Amino acid sequence: MATRSSAGKKLTSEKTVKKSAAKKSTAKKSALRVVEQFETLEVSKEASKCNAELDPVFITELDRYLFGQGRNYKIYEKMGAHPATLFGKKGMHFAVWAPHAKAVSIVCDRNNWDVTANYMLPLEDSGIYEGFMEDMGYDELYKFAIHTQRGEVLYKADPYGFSAEFRPGTASKTADVADYKWGDAEWLSKRAKTPTFAQPISIYECHIGSWRKKNREEKNGFYTYV
């Protein structure tokens, strides 16, 4: 004969099973929405085994947690545009922080700057949106289309962009930064041995584009660092 206590345990167990099933169903629907939006294969733990260097789960829960605390000091490795491989498909991974946006999409030459072509996925309540553009390579122009709560669409350059379109254009440009060779090893070594905050400092601001040109005969003959 079942007691009131055992009956209560049974009901609790049934509720737990139902909640677990509901969570799995919600997670599955969410994954399917990703597939539908970006027309890519479902991101899963099995997929990450295909490429150990570039995990399809590009921005992890820890990344988001530290970013929210302002302590993710290497978030530039995840935000912006980075080459990635998703289920064997090479392309470009995009991420941007737009906490008050209604939606965010990637616009570029590849999709004819259509704000409805490639919507990005919001990562829970972090304010971060991410997306993937298959077959996209380097030196391609892009922007983020921010869909506001008031129904406006604002075209924004990538705040984490590594390269930009030459003026007067304002688009960001995908760039290969992995093979960039820094030449400041000597300075970094010296900086590590010097008590920075005990040294005098002089700050001078100037606009080098107004007086420094590589070829003065050309209208746009500026150096690349201008």
Q: Give the spatial strand order of the biggest sheet.
A: 1-2-5-4
SSE ordering? HHHEEEEEEEEH
Radius of gyration, Cα only, in angstroms?
Answer: 24 Å
Q: Please identify the oligomeric state.
A: single chain
Report the CATH superfamily of the domain at 45-173: Immunoglobulins
Q: What portion of residues belong to β-strands?
A: 15-25%
Give the number of helices.
Answer: 4
Instruction: State the shape.
Output: globular
Terminal CA distance reads 85 Å
Overall average residue pLDDT: 78
Helix coverage percent = 25-40%
CATH class of the domain at 45-173: Mainly Beta
CATH topology of the domain at 45-173: Immunoglobulin-like
DSSP E strands, number: 8
SS-based class: alpha+beta
Query: Which residues form runs of ≥5 with pLDDT under 50?
Result: 27-55
Describe the structure.
With 226 residues, this protein is α+β, with helices and mostly antiparallel strands. The chain has a domain at 45-173: Immunoglobulins (Immunoglobulin-like, Sandwich). It has four helices and eight strands; from the N terminus they run H-H-H-E-E-E-E-E-E-E-E-H. The strands form two sheets. It has a four-stranded antiparallel β-sheet with strand order 1-2-5-4. The longest helix has 35 residues, at 4-38. Mean pLDDT is 78; it is low at 27-55.
